[in-house]
Design goal:
alpha/beta, homodimer, 17 helices
């Protein structure tokens, strides 16, 4: 079996056994089983020495006593029982094992010895192993999940490989919040057998995956990662958060997943040379995914800013320049166009401060048309009107008018969104939206549309600027 | 009249006239009036040339025709009508005028001429002027608001002076989200008369104000600011976001409020030497306010990290070191204590990775007692259990158990919060909490308690680390 076939068994097994299946709500083996049962779609075999039945299904004392074949075993028994469980799996001919418990190489030499023992059993039995010390995996197209405690995940273009369970939980949560869906996910744990690079190779070829996100503490096969990345980033973006970049961080990574964080300077150079987009914070993974999905690749780093508010314009300008993007001068033609569209008090420079909310969108076309502008950053709009309107203090005599006001605002904001998307397509220039800390309400028609088009406004100009800077850099790499 | 008396008239006027009062929902003069009426508490005089009555109150064609004295005039008429309105105010003996419209110095030489004209009228009439081109002000203890479109603001220790209306709106919103209250607020606009420094001097002496927040684009009296700051920061913290730090940002600041941003290197040095806490993003203003209110001042920069999750521990370590904080080695005594409290798989280094959620709080005392540790950063906990629990997929046979589980979790988390606050007090060391991107739910008993104690977990370790670094730096300044 080649790697692809092996990982097909992981992501879409014909049958699954859960070694450590439990009726006790406090156990991990409870939650994994109830999740697998809830999704259904394949034979499920709970393994439990002491129970005849677990969560309504017939249970077996060992995986060897399961009547049919077992493609995948999820192991949630305590650390000390893992070698015996793996021996059972090897005898049974299990293809892949997902080992959840910790206590192995990450805890020191004794744990490392047990880890080697377990791996030797797996190797001899021809079993590929995920983990140990991971949190599970999922595949939305097969509707198969072994990782509990996640918000509902929908099908979509992202794949995530993570060397930390709890961090990946946050990443998935943040993506779901933005309406993004996933193809596949794996928490790779200590990577005693299957490495980050194995999953990456597989996902690089996976047609359901359009963007690969990764959380890395240390790579086992740096050279292979680099070669794979060079190949994959030509077809699909790879966005990586590499932690353990400081001395204290690297020490923590060692005790977490026995990962050697390595020199951050070397990592940084390797990422850059292979077109990998490296981010610094967890939420940036999702920010970058959003611009990759929602925006065309910019042809340069010159950004036109549009803002109804002056403070926001200043902050946006600082943020863009802080990311080494440029704010070009507007052409004379653009200034003439804006003079005809905006009140006389408009700023007459880039950033364009329009002098009032209603004008921002009606002049966006003029800014995006400017040949000096490669992308636009628009502050405000995008569904926040409702947030402010609800705070308005109205005398009872006119309080009925507020509903009409909000309705009108919604219609007009929907038009603005449509028009922005049209402009983005027509000129093939990114148009990024950002708020000033006030989040776009997570409901209603505007939100649905923003989500569908991957253009939910960033919470701050700083986050928008960072995401755009990554997009520019990736574009420069891809265009050569 | 001295400055203090003048600003008392601004923040707590005996009577107020609104020049530009309107029945039209689309006008600024509508919202300011309805807000002042809703709060009540003093004679209110709508001024409108064409109406006998506005929003149910008798209206006057000019401020001169108001029967009683007028302490404060809020002017919302268009730019071109401001000189005439100010002339009326001067004749009437108005003490302070808040001028909302833009179109003045920020738009060029013609606007600057009108601004000079208006200021000359005010000066001759002995009127102090807020703005022009501002958004209003408020004083919670007098329940007096002239700035619309804000969420409900409660009384509290923060004051805000802002050289941008829209940005200050965001700052107030972010503070309210964290349960923080305000004493006073002013949007200072073009500062043609009253300067940032005037408000700062006043708030430095204001007993209701414990922390002064500021958004600055450019200072009119840099030397005075510096001298005031040196004095005030000995008594109360001053937290400043200074924008316009890049070339493009400074250009935007000029066209926004005619502010000269000046050299950022000079600003930075002045802030540092006068004990001002300078932040880089709008949300950091609130992050720093939270740690100032909730935490004792640390005696050093050595931070102990506690995390149930390994990835979070690595990220926290990187974030702290990125802010030039230190992660000290744990003392042998602490390691022994932790050995007795935690499962054997705990990390045995700082960051302390506990090896499971339930252990984080039960060992916090041991970490905070360590003489090598000046402050603790705790990742996880703080009310997020409920967020995860709601995603758990449960078979119907046991779904009743989830409520009990959540109830137990709440009781235990409440205890954890109490204990943390006790430890913080006992050892006089900061204990900062952070999540991994998943927000603490904004409801329930835990949230109330977290809010009351100013210890709502930061959304990310990076934000927590930044806030703590500011606290350390301020502490070093104050302690000399």
């Amino acid at each position: 079996m080649n790697l692809r076939q092996q990982l097909d068994y992981l992501f879409n097994p014909g049958s699954v056994a859960l070694i450590g299946a439990s009726n006790n709500l406090a156990k991990w083996g409870f939650h994994v089983l109830s999740l697998i049962i809830a999704k259904g779609g394949r034979p499920i075999y709970p393994i439990n020495k002491n129970e005849d039945e677990v969560q309504g299904l017939k249970a077996y004392p060992s995986v060897g006593q399961v009547p049919g074949p077992v493609d995948l075993a999820v192991i949630t028994v305590p650390f000390s029982e893992v070698p015996a469980a793996m021996r059972d799996c090897a005898r049974k001919g299990v293809k892949v094992a997902v080992v959840i418990p910790g206590g192995f190489a990450e805890t020191g030499s004794e744990g490392a010895r047990t880890q080697r023992e377990v791996m030797e059993i797996a190797r001899q039995g021809g079993i590929r192993v995920v983990g140990p010390n991971g949190m599970g995996h999922f595949n939305t197209s097969a509707d198969f999940f072994t990782v509990p405690y996640l918000p509902p995940v929908k099908k979509g273009p992202l794949a995530l490989i993570a060397q930390s369970g709890n961090t990946s939980q946050s990443i998935v949560y943040l993506a779901c919040e933005m309406g993004l869906g996933f193809s596949k996910y794996v928490s790779s744990g200590n990577e005693a057998d299957l490495h980050f690079e194995d999953y990456m190779e597989y996902l690089g070829q996976d047609e359901e995956t359009k963007i690969i996100l990764g959380y890395i503490e240390g790579l086992k096969e740096g050279r292979r990662f680099f070669e794979l990345a060079k190949e994959i980033t030509r077809k699909k973006p790879v966005v990586i958060m590499k932690a353990g970049r400081t001395v204290a961080g690297a020490r923590a990574a060692w005790s977490h997943t026995a990962a050697l964080a390595g020199s951050d300077v070397v990592s940084e150079a390797a990422f850059r040379q292979s077109g990998v987009i490296r981010v610094e914070e967890v939420n940036e993974l999702i920010d970058v995914a959003l611009v990759l999905l929602g925006q065309p690749l910019p042809r340069g780093r010159r950004v036109g800013v549009l803002s109804a508010g002056g403070g926001a314009a200043v902050i946006a300008a600082d943020a863009l320049m802080g990311q080494r993007l440029e704010l070009p001068q507007l052409s004379q033609t653009t200034i003439k166009k804006l003079d005809s569209l905006l009140p006389p008090r408009w700023s007459h420079v880039n950033p364009v401060e329009t002098g009032g909310d209603p004008f921002s969108y009606s002049c966006l076309w003029a800014l995006i048309e400017d040949e000096n502008v490669d992308a636009a950053l628009v502050i405000g709009g995008g569904g926040v009107t409702g947030s402010y309107a609800k705070w308005v203090s109205l005398p009872s005599s006119v309080s009925g008018q507020i509903d009409q006001w909000l309705e009108d605002a919604e219609v007009s904001e929907l038009d603005d969104v449509d028009e922005s998307v049209e402009l983005m397509k027509k000129y093939q220039k990114p148009i990024i939206f950002a708020n000033m800390g006030v989040p776009t309400p997570r409901r209603g028609k505007i939100y649905e549309k923003l989500q569908q088009k991957y253009i939910i406004p960033f919470l701050t100009p700083e986050r928008a600027a960072k995401a755009l800077a990554h997009l520019v850099q990736y574009s420069e790499y891809v265009r050569g």
